[in-house]
Amino acid sequence: MNRSIGSPTQRSITSASAARGGGVSDFLQLDSGDAPKGGLADWLAREIRDAIADGRLPAGGRLPATRTLAADLRVSRGVVTEAYRRLTEDGHVAGRGRGGTVVVAVPHVPTPSPEPPDQPPVAAGAGLFTAPADDLGVFDALRAAPARIDLSPGLPDLAAFPRAAWLRAERSVLAGLTPSDFGYGDPRGTPALRTAVAHWLSRNRGIRADPDDVMIVNGTAQALRLLVDVLHADGVREVAVEEPGSLGVRQHLRPLRTPPVPVDAHGVRVDALRATGARAVLLTPAHQFPTGVVLGGERRRELMEWARDGGLVIEDDYDAEHRYDRPAVPALRALLPEHVCYAGSVSKLLAPALRLGWLLAPPAYRDALLDAKRLTDLGTAGLPQLVLAHLMESGDLERHLRLIRRHHRRRRDAMIAAIRTQLPGAVVHGAAAGLHLTITFRETSRKGAYEGSDTALAAAALADGVKVHPLSWHTQLPHPPGLVLGYAASGTAEIAEGVGVLGRLVR
Questions:
Q1: What pLDDT does 119 receive?
Q2: How does pLDDT run across 451-493, given as a tens digit for each residue?
Q3: What CATH number is given to the structural domain containing 94?
Q4: At CA 189, angle to CA 153 and CA 284, rounded to 5?
Q5: Up-side HSE of residue 33: CA atoms within 13 Å toward CB?
Q6: Rounded CA gap, 397 and 386, in Å?
Q7: Mean pLDDT estimate for the chain
Q8: Domains of the chain: total
Q9: pLDDT tens digit sequence for 416-427
Q10: Would you give the DSSP letter of residue 383?
Q11: What is d(CA 276, CA 314) in angstroms, rounded to the nearest whole number?
């Protein structure tokens, strides 16, 4: 039985082209039926030249092989060869042997000089740092802002990504795959990675979990979005959060309300949590963001009592692997699995670009979360999961962790030393672990150009080429001004220079 292929519009275009004796190519959607008689080479050279000029063919872009394009357009190979020769003589393209013919020069189009800004750079930066809670794109805007030194929190030493180990694991995985492995998989994640994560959590976080308890997600961000949908459907309208606590987390929890619960030197205050009446709370107990405190033993006992009374704990195991001056603390999930949703990822261990994480939920929510994951994306990409599983089970990931702990510790020490020298009025918080420090300013340090406004200070730093987070981004209640400073992604010289800029601005 014969069937027509393509839409009616596509069939009519192809039929019209065939009637004119032309051919259509996927390359630039060229149709040789549009060329004037006797002028095929001129027409083809002009079409390619126009595509280079308007950016459809950027410098470095490869042209199709002459034989392939000639067959698509139903013209002689000599027509395409002649068009390429003219473009080569013009200096637009060049032959690279087996590398083919590539674009080597793009016509220069003069751009008008930018209008001088109406406001100084500090004012422009200040716009980025004001009212960020209402702008979901604020972190994208800060990442895109040019700066010579980036002290934003949340990034590991990206230059230390284990490329050689990743490539070895990737080759090993690909060599062992069957054709069926390239199809749709289990939306919970590949069995190999779920097993590897269960083993990893048992070794490193004290969590006893079966692979069937593990769901692979696109980072902690997706874990939170899935939980929001499931909790909202269950009638939950608010999730209490730490104060101070991550602005990014509050954004991911929308549209649920996020009543703040104060954090002190021992962690979240459970008495204040009870007072909110919230049925769920999101915590970073291993290394609280941004203060760096660890949830103490007495508070853990109080929290477990609250959970047994019907509360749900969402545990973001933020920075748990990165510790320097204190022993590991057990995950809350290890203590009360029936009341804890546990989320973790490799964003701080390897790189955020991988978008790989895991979610362990109590049985009451497991099926609903699986349905939400299935409807969202049919499952996280399978090949990176298999490579990560190989790294985990081979021991390469633990070797990498030991390496970057040494890197991060040196950079943390460099930042503390620079703060002591350049910002003697600052109080350092959370130095024992993690990838960032938080500093607050004593009363005597709040006078002067910024008068206690950490957003104004952050804006001035950005105008001077240094990115930081103002502490007020991560607060809902009044709090002393401060900055959140990441140190893991910058070298020691950059850290010293960046803190020096902050010291000069404060002085």
A1: 44
A2: 678 999 999 999 999 999 999 999 999 999 999 999 999 999 9
A3: 1.10.10.10
A4: 30
A5: 15
A6: 13
A7: 89
A8: 3
A9: 999 999 999 899
A10: H
A11: 16
Domain that holds residue 287: 184-394
Task: Count CA atoms within 13 Å of residue 163 on its CB side.
Answer: 4
Q: Do the beta carbons of residue 346 and residue 388 sit within 8 Å?
A: yes
Residue 418, domain CATH: 3.90.1150.10
B/e letters for 481-503, b = 16+ CB within 10 Å, e = fewer, are bbbbbbbbbbbeebbbbbbbbbb
My answer on whether 405 and 268 are in the same domain is: no
Q: Which of 346, 375, 394 is the last residue of a domain?
A: 394
| Same domain membership, residue 424 and residue 307 | no
**Residue from 420, 423, 356, 422 nearest 390 by CA:** 356
**In angstroms, how far is CA 153 from the centroid of its own chain?**
12
On whether both 389 and 436 belong to a single domain, the answer is: no
Contacts of 149 (CB under 8 A, 6+ apart): 465, 466, 467, 490, 494, 495, 497, 498, 501
Last residue of a domain, one of 394, 412, 434: 394
In 3D space, the residue among 301, 309, 238, 239 whose CA is nearest the CA of residue 267 turns out to be 301
389 with 415, same domain: the answer is: no
Nearest to 35 by CA among 20, 25, 49, 50: 20
Rounded to whole angstroms, the Cα distance separating 366 from 373 reads 11
